[in-house]
Amino acid sequence: MHSFTYHVPTEVVFGVDAERRTAEYVRKYGGSRVMVIYGGGSAVRSGLLDRICRQLQEAGIACESLGGVQPNPRVSFAREAIAKAAAFGADMVLGLGGGSVIDTAKAVAHGVANPGKDVWKDIWLQPASLMKSIPVAAIPTIPAAGSEMSDSAVLTDEESGLKRGLSTQLNRPVFAILDPALAATLPAYQVGCGVTDIMMHTLDRYFNPVTDNELTDEIAEALLRVVIRNGRKVVENPGDLHAMSEIMWAGSLSHNELTGLGGKKDFAPHQLSQALGGLFDKAHGACLAAVWGSWARYVCPSNPERFARYARKVWGVDGSLTTDQAALAGIEANEAYFRSLGMPVGLAGLVGVQDDAGLDTLARQCSFGGTRTIGTFQVLDEKDMRAIFASANERQ
């Protein structure tokens, strides 16, 4: 094992009916005035929002709520929520929903703790300036982003079309309620996007230049096999609580750093997908699926042995194949699996075929106007990014 520092302070309450313990944990972590952030109408229609707010109020905890978070969460909504939470005097923010909701809750917590700072210009684009926050907690209803245990959050600025991530230990929720029953009625497409995102959080750690962290690699490979095995089950039947419980816990572990300890995170596919999500406002999981295969084929020659190991350990590819054959077979198996989840594996299947100007714009957005490179498995510049987008362009 290579050196690492590992600290994940989030307390996890896992299992069916875990939501009933929300007030207990709000009180445990000092919450007395809780701002609840949620997304569309599902939290209302399912009764979850009412149940949580009623539970808090019955425990003597003041509660205010605001809904309307969209996929690729908007800065404008975060600003509105910060103003409302500050006026309410919130001392804790609770995200009730998917990764976009939880990411927004993190942004709200930072904004409340730093009055006078704009959440985008002064915090998101200047992360070193963020020195304090208020506690944030999470009740995920869509196993996907792993935001309930991660140090990451993402916002999209509608004016510029830029989608940016923020990584800080202040993003770690103090507690997370993981109740697989809350995901039992999700639409198949959302579940497919979630399973894809879970896989990608581990794949973007697994494919890195460090290849001799034995235990980390074995953990990553086991998690991927479990997700693959149960992913189709939850797409076909989200009410399969055993399969959903495996997926939900895998989602948390996939993004709390466990599956990449000792390595150097790559996350190039995530950066490529964020350019797509910011410009076209498409689901994050679908954007990831649309670029992964093209990225994999582009970088595979730099270390085909790594891709061959992935193919054999995770997909059970024939051990008699050569390294190059096995590597390609693993990439193809991965793409076939994404298709089985209802995901696109190219731009044509996600946003339509792009012209040269469109490809240039994607590469420019991803490279921050040519000012950065991405990736560690193979470092990619703007020219490389454009080549990958071009490779994905006509694929469905």
Give the gist of this structure.
The chain is an alpha/beta fold and 396 residues long. Helices cover 50% and strands 11% of the residues.
Give me the number of helical elements: 16
Query: What is the terminal separation in angstroms?
Result: 39 Å
Structural class: alpha/beta
Q: Percent helix among the residues?
A: 40-55%
The 3D shape can be described as globular
How are the strands ordered across the major sheet?
1-8-5-4-2-3
* Unreliable stretches: none
The chain-level mean pLDDT equals 96
Strand content: 5-15%
**Total number of β-strand segments?**
8
Largest sheet: 6 strands, parallel
Rounded to the nearest angstrom, the radius of gyration is 20 Å
What does this structure look like?
The protein is α/β, with parallel strands linked by helices. The protein is built from 16 helices and 8 strands. The strands form 2 sheets. A 6-stranded parallel beta sheet has the order 1-8-5-4-2-3, with helices on both faces. Helix 7 (188-206) runs antiparallel to helix 8, helix 10 packs across helix 15 (356-366) and helix 15 packs across helix 16 (382-392).
